[in-house]
Design brief:
The protein has helices spanning 13-28, 64-73, 110-124, 126-142, 147-153, 155-167, 189-205, 247-261, 278-284, 322-330, 336-347, 396-410, 425-430; strands at 32-38, 51-58, 80-81, 89-95, 98-106, 215-219, 222-226, 235-238, 266-269, 287-299, 315-319, 356-363, 366-376, 379-387, 415-420, 434-444. By secondary structure, it is an alpha+beta fold. The protein is globular.
Length: 448
Protein backbone atom coordinates (compact mmCIF):
# COMPACT_ATOMS: atom_id res chain seq x y z
CA UNK A 1 0.00 0.00 0.00
CA UNK A 2 1.33 3.42 -0.99
CA UNK A 3 1.46 6.01 1.79
CA UNK A 4 0.46 9.58 0.91
CA UNK A 5 3.42 11.64 2.05
CA UNK A 6 3.95 15.34 1.31
CA UNK A 7 7.48 16.69 1.83
CA UNK A 8 8.86 20.25 1.59
CA UNK A 9 10.08 21.42 -1.81
CA UNK A 10 13.54 20.16 -2.74
CA UNK A 11 15.68 22.40 -4.98
CA UNK A 12 17.21 19.36 -6.67
CA UNK A 13 13.90 18.18 -8.18
CA UNK A 14 14.34 20.10 -11.50
CA UNK A 15 17.84 18.63 -11.94
CA UNK A 16 16.54 15.12 -11.19
CA UNK A 17 13.86 15.66 -13.86
CA UNK A 18 16.42 16.91 -16.40
CA UNK A 19 18.61 13.86 -15.87
CA UNK A 20 15.69 11.46 -16.28
CA UNK A 21 14.35 13.34 -19.31
CA UNK A 22 17.73 12.96 -21.04
CA UNK A 23 17.70 9.20 -20.35
CA UNK A 24 14.24 8.94 -21.88
CA UNK A 25 15.08 11.03 -24.93
CA UNK A 26 18.29 9.14 -25.69
CA UNK A 27 16.53 5.79 -25.50
CA UNK A 28 13.38 6.72 -27.42
CA UNK A 29 14.19 9.70 -29.63
CA UNK A 30 12.77 8.10 -32.84
CA UNK A 31 9.39 7.48 -31.20
CA UNK A 32 8.61 10.47 -28.99
CA UNK A 33 8.02 14.19 -29.31
CA UNK A 34 8.29 16.66 -26.44
CA UNK A 35 9.02 15.77 -22.81
CA UNK A 36 7.64 17.86 -19.95
CA UNK A 37 8.11 18.09 -16.20
CA UNK A 38 4.59 18.28 -14.72
CA UNK A 39 2.96 17.84 -11.33
CA UNK A 40 3.82 19.46 -8.04
CA UNK A 41 7.57 18.82 -8.16
CA UNK A 42 7.67 21.02 -11.29
CA UNK A 43 6.29 24.04 -9.38
CA UNK A 44 8.94 26.05 -7.45
CA UNK A 45 8.52 26.01 -3.65
CA UNK A 46 5.55 23.63 -3.78
CA UNK A 47 5.49 20.89 -1.15
CA UNK A 48 4.84 17.62 -2.90
CA UNK A 49 4.97 13.87 -2.84
CA UNK A 50 8.58 12.88 -3.71
CA UNK A 51 7.44 11.93 -7.21
CA UNK A 52 8.90 13.30 -10.44
CA UNK A 53 5.95 13.40 -12.85
CA UNK A 54 7.06 13.36 -16.48
CA UNK A 55 4.83 13.65 -19.54
CA UNK A 56 6.07 12.35 -22.87
CA UNK A 57 4.35 12.47 -26.24
CA UNK A 58 4.50 9.54 -28.62
CA UNK A 59 4.23 9.98 -32.38
CA UNK A 60 2.37 6.81 -33.43
CA UNK A 61 0.20 4.36 -31.50
CA UNK A 62 1.95 1.52 -33.34
CA UNK A 63 5.21 2.48 -31.58
CA UNK A 64 3.80 2.03 -28.07
CA UNK A 65 4.93 -1.63 -27.74
CA UNK A 66 8.49 -0.63 -28.66
CA UNK A 67 8.31 2.32 -26.26
CA UNK A 68 7.24 -0.07 -23.51
CA UNK A 69 10.17 -2.41 -24.29
CA UNK A 70 12.65 0.45 -24.09
CA UNK A 71 11.13 1.81 -20.90
CA UNK A 72 11.55 -1.59 -19.26
CA UNK A 73 15.26 -1.41 -20.14
CA UNK A 74 15.33 1.84 -18.17
CA UNK A 75 13.75 0.19 -15.15
CA UNK A 76 10.11 1.13 -15.67
CA UNK A 77 7.18 -1.18 -14.99
CA UNK A 78 4.81 -2.47 -17.67
CA UNK A 79 2.48 0.12 -19.15
CA UNK A 80 -1.03 0.38 -17.83
CA UNK A 81 -4.06 2.42 -18.85
CA UNK A 82 -4.19 6.10 -18.04
CA UNK A 83 -7.21 8.42 -17.90
CA UNK A 84 -8.10 8.17 -21.61
CA UNK A 85 -8.52 4.48 -22.51
CA UNK A 86 -6.46 2.86 -25.28
CA UNK A 87 -4.36 5.93 -26.16
CA UNK A 88 -2.89 7.20 -22.87
CA UNK A 89 -0.59 5.16 -20.65
CA UNK A 90 1.16 5.26 -17.30
CA UNK A 91 4.21 3.62 -15.79
CA UNK A 92 6.68 4.23 -12.97
CA UNK A 93 10.02 3.33 -11.48
CA UNK A 94 11.67 3.98 -8.13
CA UNK A 95 15.25 4.81 -7.25
CA UNK A 96 16.36 5.50 -3.69
CA UNK A 97 13.75 7.85 -2.20
CA UNK A 98 12.47 9.18 -5.55
CA UNK A 99 9.61 7.74 -7.57
CA UNK A 100 9.24 8.55 -11.27
CA UNK A 101 5.74 8.65 -12.79
CA UNK A 102 5.55 8.62 -16.57
CA UNK A 103 2.39 9.88 -18.29
CA UNK A 104 2.31 9.00 -22.00
CA UNK A 105 0.04 10.73 -24.52
CA UNK A 106 -0.14 11.18 -28.31
CA UNK A 107 1.55 14.28 -29.74
CA UNK A 108 -0.82 17.24 -29.46
CA UNK A 109 -3.18 15.56 -26.99
CA UNK A 110 -5.35 18.10 -25.10
CA UNK A 111 -4.00 16.70 -21.82
CA UNK A 112 -0.51 17.96 -22.71
CA UNK A 113 -1.67 21.54 -22.82
CA UNK A 114 -3.78 21.10 -19.68
CA UNK A 115 -0.88 19.79 -17.62
CA UNK A 116 1.58 22.42 -18.84
CA UNK A 117 -0.91 25.26 -18.31
CA UNK A 118 -1.63 24.01 -14.77
CA UNK A 119 2.09 23.99 -13.96
CA UNK A 120 2.79 27.40 -15.46
CA UNK A 121 -0.27 29.05 -13.90
CA UNK A 122 0.63 27.95 -10.37
CA UNK A 123 4.26 28.93 -10.94
CA UNK A 124 3.06 32.41 -11.87
CA UNK A 125 0.48 32.83 -9.06
CA UNK A 126 2.06 31.94 -5.74
CA UNK A 127 -1.07 32.66 -3.66
CA UNK A 128 -3.05 30.06 -5.61
CA UNK A 129 -0.16 27.63 -5.38
CA UNK A 130 -0.10 28.14 -1.60
CA UNK A 131 -3.84 27.36 -1.37
CA UNK A 132 -3.32 24.18 -3.40
CA UNK A 133 -0.40 23.19 -1.19
CA UNK A 134 -2.44 23.76 1.96
CA UNK A 135 -5.22 21.50 0.69
CA UNK A 136 -2.74 18.77 -0.24
CA UNK A 137 -1.17 18.84 3.23
CA UNK A 138 -4.60 18.58 4.86
CA UNK A 139 -5.72 15.71 2.63
CA UNK A 140 -2.41 13.86 3.07
CA UNK A 141 -3.05 13.77 6.81
CA UNK A 142 -6.67 12.73 6.38
CA UNK A 143 -6.10 10.05 3.72
CA UNK A 144 -2.58 8.89 4.49
CA UNK A 145 -3.44 5.30 3.54
CA UNK A 146 -5.89 5.99 0.71
CA UNK A 147 -4.29 7.52 -2.39
CA UNK A 148 -7.51 7.26 -4.43
CA UNK A 149 -9.49 9.28 -1.90
CA UNK A 150 -6.64 11.78 -1.66
CA UNK A 151 -6.74 12.31 -5.43
CA UNK A 152 -10.54 12.47 -5.59
CA UNK A 153 -10.78 14.97 -2.74
CA UNK A 154 -8.57 17.53 -4.42
CA UNK A 155 -10.27 17.20 -7.80
CA UNK A 156 -12.58 20.17 -7.24
CA UNK A 157 -9.72 22.61 -6.63
CA UNK A 158 -7.73 21.09 -9.49
CA UNK A 159 -10.69 21.79 -11.82
CA UNK A 160 -10.87 25.39 -10.64
CA UNK A 161 -7.17 25.88 -11.35
CA UNK A 162 -7.49 24.10 -14.72
CA UNK A 163 -10.27 26.50 -15.71
CA UNK A 164 -8.24 29.58 -14.78
CA UNK A 165 -5.18 28.21 -16.56
CA UNK A 166 -7.23 27.49 -19.71
CA UNK A 167 -8.48 31.08 -19.80
CA UNK A 168 -5.13 32.60 -18.80
CA UNK A 169 -3.83 34.99 -21.44
CA UNK A 170 -0.20 34.29 -20.56
CA UNK A 171 -0.20 30.66 -21.68
CA UNK A 172 3.03 29.49 -23.28
CA UNK A 173 2.84 29.90 -27.03
CA UNK A 174 5.34 27.11 -27.66
CA UNK A 175 3.11 24.39 -26.22
CA UNK A 176 1.58 22.34 -29.04
CA UNK A 177 -2.10 23.10 -29.40
CA UNK A 178 -4.57 20.24 -29.24
CA UNK A 179 -4.06 18.56 -32.58
CA UNK A 180 -7.04 17.90 -34.84
CA UNK A 181 -4.86 16.54 -37.61
CA UNK A 182 -4.91 12.74 -37.78
CA UNK A 183 -1.85 10.49 -37.98
CA UNK A 184 -1.85 7.95 -40.80
CA UNK A 185 -3.16 4.68 -39.38
CA UNK A 186 -3.70 1.14 -40.64
CA UNK A 187 -7.28 0.55 -39.53
CA UNK A 188 -8.75 -2.74 -38.37
CA UNK A 189 -12.18 -3.23 -36.83
CA UNK A 190 -10.67 -3.78 -33.38
CA UNK A 191 -8.52 -0.68 -33.67
CA UNK A 192 -11.53 1.42 -34.71
CA UNK A 193 -13.46 0.20 -31.67
CA UNK A 194 -10.60 1.14 -29.33
CA UNK A 195 -10.33 4.55 -30.98
CA UNK A 196 -14.07 5.02 -30.59
CA UNK A 197 -13.83 4.32 -26.86
CA UNK A 198 -11.12 6.94 -26.47
CA UNK A 199 -13.08 9.42 -28.57
CA UNK A 200 -16.24 8.89 -26.51
CA UNK A 201 -14.28 9.38 -23.30
CA UNK A 202 -12.96 12.76 -24.47
CA UNK A 203 -16.42 13.75 -25.69
CA UNK A 204 -17.83 12.99 -22.22
CA UNK A 205 -15.03 14.42 -20.04
CA UNK A 206 -13.15 17.20 -21.86
CA UNK A 207 -15.23 20.18 -20.81
CA UNK A 208 -16.00 18.76 -17.36
CA UNK A 209 -12.33 19.40 -16.58
CA UNK A 210 -12.96 23.14 -16.78
CA UNK A 211 -16.48 23.68 -15.44
CA UNK A 212 -16.53 25.05 -11.89
CA UNK A 213 -20.15 23.92 -11.58
CA UNK A 214 -19.32 20.27 -12.37
CA UNK A 215 -17.18 17.70 -10.64
CA UNK A 216 -14.86 15.35 -12.50
CA UNK A 217 -13.44 12.44 -10.51
CA UNK A 218 -10.74 10.42 -12.24
CA UNK A 219 -9.27 7.56 -10.29
CA UNK A 220 -7.71 4.37 -11.68
CA UNK A 221 -10.95 2.41 -11.19
CA UNK A 222 -13.43 4.68 -13.01
CA UNK A 223 -14.33 8.23 -14.05
CA UNK A 224 -17.31 10.15 -12.65
CA UNK A 225 -18.81 13.26 -14.21
CA UNK A 226 -21.23 15.08 -11.91
CA UNK A 227 -22.84 18.28 -13.20
CA UNK A 228 -25.24 18.62 -10.29
CA UNK A 229 -28.05 19.05 -12.83
CA UNK A 230 -31.26 16.97 -12.60
CA UNK A 231 -30.67 15.26 -15.97
CA UNK A 232 -28.58 12.11 -16.44
CA UNK A 233 -27.43 13.44 -19.82
CA UNK A 234 -24.82 15.32 -17.79
CA UNK A 235 -24.13 12.86 -14.93
CA UNK A 236 -22.48 9.52 -15.53
CA UNK A 237 -19.74 7.02 -14.75
CA UNK A 238 -17.52 5.54 -17.44
CA UNK A 239 -14.14 3.88 -18.04
CA UNK A 240 -14.57 1.05 -15.51
CA UNK A 241 -11.22 -0.63 -14.90
CA UNK A 242 -11.18 -2.85 -11.81
CA UNK A 243 -10.93 -6.56 -11.16
CA UNK A 244 -13.74 -9.02 -10.65
CA UNK A 245 -12.94 -9.40 -6.96
CA UNK A 246 -13.48 -5.68 -6.29
CA UNK A 247 -16.48 -5.19 -8.57
CA UNK A 248 -19.16 -5.22 -5.88
CA UNK A 249 -17.22 -2.70 -3.78
CA UNK A 250 -16.51 -0.33 -6.69
CA UNK A 251 -20.08 -0.39 -7.96
CA UNK A 252 -21.31 0.29 -4.43
CA UNK A 253 -18.94 3.28 -4.20
CA UNK A 254 -20.38 4.82 -7.35
CA UNK A 255 -23.97 4.10 -6.35
CA UNK A 256 -23.46 5.62 -2.90
CA UNK A 257 -21.82 8.69 -4.41
CA UNK A 258 -24.72 9.52 -6.68
CA UNK A 259 -27.34 8.63 -4.07
CA UNK A 260 -25.72 11.12 -1.71
CA UNK A 261 -25.91 13.72 -4.49
CA UNK A 262 -29.59 12.92 -5.15
CA UNK A 263 -29.22 13.33 -8.90
CA UNK A 264 -29.97 10.90 -11.73
CA UNK A 265 -27.02 9.30 -13.55
CA UNK A 266 -26.09 6.67 -16.11
CA UNK A 267 -23.35 4.04 -16.16
CA UNK A 268 -21.76 3.74 -19.62
CA UNK A 269 -20.26 0.38 -20.48
CA UNK A 270 -17.71 0.28 -23.33
CA UNK A 271 -16.41 -2.89 -25.03
CA UNK A 272 -13.03 -2.98 -23.23
CA UNK A 273 -14.26 -2.03 -19.75
CA UNK A 274 -13.14 -4.30 -16.95
CA UNK A 275 -14.03 -6.71 -15.53
CA UNK A 276 -15.28 -8.62 -18.56
CA UNK A 277 -18.45 -9.56 -16.67
CA UNK A 278 -19.18 -5.99 -15.55
CA UNK A 279 -22.69 -6.19 -17.02
CA UNK A 280 -23.53 -9.11 -14.73
CA UNK A 281 -22.20 -7.24 -11.70
CA UNK A 282 -24.21 -4.13 -12.59
CA UNK A 283 -27.40 -6.12 -12.97
CA UNK A 284 -26.79 -7.86 -9.63
CA UNK A 285 -26.37 -4.43 -8.04
CA UNK A 286 -29.77 -3.29 -9.30
CA UNK A 287 -28.80 -1.59 -12.54
CA UNK A 288 -30.99 -1.93 -15.63
CA UNK A 289 -29.74 -1.93 -19.22
CA UNK A 290 -31.81 0.93 -20.63
CA UNK A 291 -30.19 1.41 -24.03
CA UNK A 292 -27.78 -0.35 -26.36
CA UNK A 293 -25.92 1.61 -29.00
CA UNK A 294 -24.33 0.01 -32.03
CA UNK A 295 -20.76 1.18 -32.57
CA UNK A 296 -20.55 2.02 -36.28
CA UNK A 297 -17.96 3.62 -38.50
CA UNK A 298 -17.83 5.17 -41.96
CA UNK A 299 -14.80 5.11 -44.23
CA UNK A 300 -14.48 8.70 -45.45
CA UNK A 301 -12.63 7.50 -48.54
CA UNK A 302 -16.10 6.48 -49.71
CA UNK A 303 -17.47 10.02 -49.32
CA UNK A 304 -17.67 11.95 -52.58
CA UNK A 305 -17.40 15.52 -51.30
CA UNK A 306 -18.36 16.90 -54.71
CA UNK A 307 -21.78 15.31 -54.38
CA UNK A 308 -22.46 16.37 -50.79
CA UNK A 309 -25.87 18.05 -50.90
CA UNK A 310 -25.90 21.10 -48.63
CA UNK A 311 -29.50 22.16 -48.03
CA UNK A 312 -29.83 25.56 -49.71
CA UNK A 313 -31.98 27.18 -47.03
CA UNK A 314 -29.91 25.77 -44.15
CA UNK A 315 -27.09 27.90 -42.72
CA UNK A 316 -24.68 25.94 -40.49
CA UNK A 317 -22.33 27.72 -38.08
CA UNK A 318 -19.91 26.62 -35.38
CA UNK A 319 -21.28 27.49 -31.93
CA UNK A 320 -18.69 29.33 -29.84
CA UNK A 321 -20.64 31.96 -27.90
CA UNK A 322 -23.50 32.22 -25.43
CA UNK A 323 -26.27 32.66 -28.01
CA UNK A 324 -25.20 29.99 -30.50
CA UNK A 325 -24.59 27.45 -27.72
CA UNK A 326 -28.03 28.22 -26.31
CA UNK A 327 -29.41 27.61 -29.80
CA UNK A 328 -27.57 24.27 -29.85
CA UNK A 329 -29.21 23.37 -26.53
CA UNK A 330 -32.79 24.25 -27.45
CA UNK A 331 -32.94 22.22 -30.67
CA UNK A 332 -33.89 19.22 -28.54
CA UNK A 333 -33.76 18.90 -24.75
CA UNK A 334 -35.09 16.27 -22.36
CA UNK A 335 -34.94 18.91 -19.63
CA UNK A 336 -34.75 22.45 -21.08
CA UNK A 337 -33.55 23.93 -17.77
CA UNK A 338 -30.58 21.54 -17.53
CA UNK A 339 -29.63 21.88 -21.19
CA UNK A 340 -29.70 25.68 -21.19
CA UNK A 341 -27.82 25.84 -17.89
CA UNK A 342 -25.09 23.45 -19.03
CA UNK A 343 -24.47 25.23 -22.32
CA UNK A 344 -24.41 28.60 -20.57
CA UNK A 345 -21.58 27.21 -18.43
CA UNK A 346 -19.87 25.85 -21.52
CA UNK A 347 -19.88 29.25 -23.20
CA UNK A 348 -17.53 30.55 -20.51
CA UNK A 349 -14.77 28.02 -21.21
CA UNK A 350 -15.01 26.91 -24.83
CA UNK A 351 -12.32 27.95 -27.30
CA UNK A 352 -11.49 27.29 -30.93
CA UNK A 353 -8.72 24.81 -30.19
CA UNK A 354 -10.87 22.46 -28.09
CA UNK A 355 -11.16 18.97 -29.66
CA UNK A 356 -14.97 19.20 -29.63
CA UNK A 357 -16.83 21.42 -32.11
CA UNK A 358 -20.55 22.22 -31.85
CA UNK A 359 -22.59 23.08 -34.96
CA UNK A 360 -26.06 24.58 -35.34
CA UNK A 361 -28.14 24.76 -38.50
CA UNK A 362 -30.54 27.68 -38.98
CA UNK A 363 -33.47 28.27 -41.31
CA UNK A 364 -34.58 31.90 -41.41
CA UNK A 365 -32.42 32.54 -38.31
CA UNK A 366 -34.23 29.83 -36.32
CA UNK A 367 -32.15 26.88 -35.00
CA UNK A 368 -33.55 23.66 -36.47
CA UNK A 369 -30.74 21.06 -36.34
CA UNK A 370 -27.55 20.43 -34.40
CA UNK A 371 -24.56 18.10 -34.23
CA UNK A 372 -21.05 18.01 -32.84
CA UNK A 373 -17.72 16.53 -33.86
CA UNK A 374 -15.05 15.28 -31.48
CA UNK A 375 -11.64 14.99 -33.12
CA UNK A 376 -9.63 12.52 -31.06
CA UNK A 377 -7.74 9.23 -31.39
CA UNK A 378 -7.42 9.76 -35.16
CA UNK A 379 -11.16 9.44 -35.69
CA UNK A 380 -13.97 11.97 -36.02
CA UNK A 381 -16.67 11.18 -33.46
CA UNK A 382 -20.16 12.30 -34.47
CA UNK A 383 -22.57 12.97 -31.62
CA UNK A 384 -25.85 14.67 -30.75
CA UNK A 385 -27.44 14.80 -34.20
CA UNK A 386 -30.92 16.19 -33.49
CA UNK A 387 -33.64 18.10 -35.33
CA UNK A 388 -36.44 20.21 -33.89
CA UNK A 389 -39.39 17.76 -33.87
CA UNK A 390 -41.70 19.91 -36.05
CA UNK A 391 -38.90 20.35 -38.64
CA UNK A 392 -38.09 16.67 -39.20
CA UNK A 393 -38.27 14.85 -42.56
CA UNK A 394 -37.06 17.93 -44.43
CA UNK A 395 -33.48 16.80 -44.99
CA UNK A 396 -31.88 18.98 -42.31
CA UNK A 397 -30.38 16.07 -40.34
CA UNK A 398 -28.97 14.57 -43.53
CA UNK A 399 -27.41 17.92 -44.42
CA UNK A 400 -25.84 18.29 -40.97
CA UNK A 401 -24.45 14.75 -41.14
CA UNK A 402 -22.98 15.34 -44.59
CA UNK A 403 -21.54 18.67 -43.46
CA UNK A 404 -19.71 17.03 -40.54
CA UNK A 405 -18.43 14.14 -42.66
CA UNK A 406 -17.07 16.59 -45.23
CA UNK A 407 -15.38 18.65 -42.50
CA UNK A 408 -13.64 15.54 -41.18
CA UNK A 409 -12.55 14.34 -44.61
CA UNK A 410 -11.26 17.80 -45.55
CA UNK A 411 -9.09 17.71 -42.43
CA UNK A 412 -7.55 14.41 -43.48
CA UNK A 413 -9.61 11.96 -41.42
CA UNK A 414 -10.28 8.55 -42.86
CA UNK A 415 -12.72 7.22 -40.26
CA UNK A 416 -15.87 8.74 -38.75
CA UNK A 417 -17.54 6.94 -35.83
CA UNK A 418 -20.80 7.15 -33.92
CA UNK A 419 -23.05 5.21 -31.58
CA UNK A 420 -26.33 4.41 -33.32
CA UNK A 421 -29.54 3.72 -31.46
CA UNK A 422 -31.31 0.46 -32.18
CA UNK A 423 -33.93 2.42 -34.15
CA UNK A 424 -31.35 4.35 -36.18
CA UNK A 425 -28.95 1.49 -36.87
CA UNK A 426 -30.74 0.10 -40.00
CA UNK A 427 -30.57 3.55 -41.63
CA UNK A 428 -26.83 3.86 -41.00
CA UNK A 429 -26.34 0.36 -42.42
CA UNK A 430 -28.06 1.41 -45.63
CA UNK A 431 -25.81 4.47 -45.83
CA UNK A 432 -22.67 2.32 -45.73
CA UNK A 433 -21.73 2.43 -42.04
CA UNK A 434 -20.26 -0.79 -40.62
CA UNK A 435 -20.79 -2.24 -37.16
CA UNK A 436 -17.83 -2.81 -34.82
CA UNK A 437 -19.19 -3.20 -31.28
CA UNK A 438 -21.80 -2.25 -28.72
CA UNK A 439 -21.92 0.46 -26.05
CA UNK A 440 -24.43 -0.05 -23.26
CA UNK A 441 -26.14 2.41 -20.93
CA UNK A 442 -27.33 1.37 -17.46
CA UNK A 443 -29.44 3.14 -14.88
CA UNK A 444 -30.05 2.25 -11.26
CA UNK A 445 -33.55 1.03 -10.39
CA UNK A 446 -35.44 3.13 -7.87
CA UNK A 447 -35.54 0.43 -5.20
CA UNK A 448 -31.78 -0.35 -5.30
Amino acid sequence: MRIVEIVPYRPEWPQIYQHEARRLELEMIPFIGSVYHIGSTSIPWMSAKPVIDILIEYRRIDDVPEIETRLKKLGYASLRKNIIPNVSFFTFREKNDIRYHLHIYPVGDPQVKRHVNFRDYLTRYRDEAAAYQELKLLLAQRYRNDISQYVASKSELVQQIDRKAKQWNEQRSDVILSSKTPVATEWTTDRITLAMEANLNVHMTHFAQYLNQARLVRIPDYTIVDSGLPDDTFNYVLRADFNDRDAEKKISEVTAYFKSREIPFSWWNSPSDQPDNLVKHLECAGYRNTENYKAVYFNLDDLNTDSVDMHQELKIIRALDQQSLRDFAVVLANDPFSFEKYFAWLADVISEDDPIEYYVGYVNNVPVVRGLVCYYANVAGLYWLSTVPVMRNRGYATAMQQYRLKLAKDRGYQIAVLQASEQGFPLYQRLGYKECGVFREFKITNNS
